[in-house]
Amino acid sequence: MKKAIGIDIGGTKIAAAIISETGELLNRKEIKSDPSDREKMFARVVKAVEQVLKGSSYKVEDMDGIGVGVPGRVDREQGIAVFQNNLPWAQFPLIDRLREQFGPQRITIDNDVYMAAFAEWNAAKAKNDETFVYVTISTGISCSIIHNGSLFRGAGFSGELGLLPVFSKAAKKLERLEQASAGPAIEKLAQKEFQMVSLSTRDVFKRYKEGAIEYKPIINDVTDNWAQGLYSISCLLDPHKVVFGGSVIANNPFLLEIIKEKLKMYQIPEQQHLLSNMSISNMKENNGVVGAGLRVFDGN
């Protein structure tokens, strides 16, 4: 059985896993990030890999390679983490450093959302002649497109759904979707509305599900913003399938039906085939490491 190490790097945590070529998760470890310094951050990545190997019966020499998902912009050919909002790695030669640490084996690097999308595309068994979109709603909002079996990259920065302007009813103005409706934005909106500094995004959804009607306007505003962004995807790509991931929506699956209702209000009948082909990921926090591991076996 072929195996690879998948690494999913974020500003808060680093996950490392051993993945089979069929996408089976053989072992997984997660540790906290240390974005205070570029070398400290790299040391945490090394520790995550060492821990996942230590907790298994495998050595790094048993692996067919390493796949790494990194936020922001990457140079895949040179193996460089070019730019990230939440990591101290501007122009960081990540692949060279990993090779120095773990030996000369196949190492592939890509944007973390692209890695997660590849895992979801694989799990969804999407056809090679289809257009598949993975949307993540979490601390940020982004998407990745797989068209005819290949990741669509544009000039290198495609899929930045969170940068789209939407009309926010709460702010009564145009705002970027991520600024208006990602996890931190929901928290700030609720804190301002209820004058409660300790109120978290998780609290908002918990209290809404418990029937607190005063939270309904926040849910309505946020989901309407998402629907505006998704309608752009519907119009521009007319995808066959959309899968949602990220902690905000994966932990609150009831949101999917609200999104569908709002999106339907924007769509014309010819676009509404998408409504029955929208789903929430079953992989949750594992899609990043699974996708990174699977990419070792694929030239995509």
Automatic annotation (TrEMBL):
Keywords: Transferase. Its EC number is 2.7.1.2. It is an enzyme of class 2 (transferase). It comes from the Bacteria. Pfam families: ROK (PF00480). Gene3D superfamilies: 3.30.420.40. Transmembrane segments: none annotated. The keyword Ligase does not apply. GO terms for molecular function: glucokinase activity. Belongs to the ROK (NagC/XylR) family. PANTHER family: BIFUNCTIONAL UDP-N-ACETYLGLUCOSAMINE 2-EPIMERASE_N-ACETYLMANNOSAMINE KINASE (PTHR18964:SF149), ROK (REPRESSOR, ORF, KINASE) FAMILY (PTHR18964). This is Glucokinase.
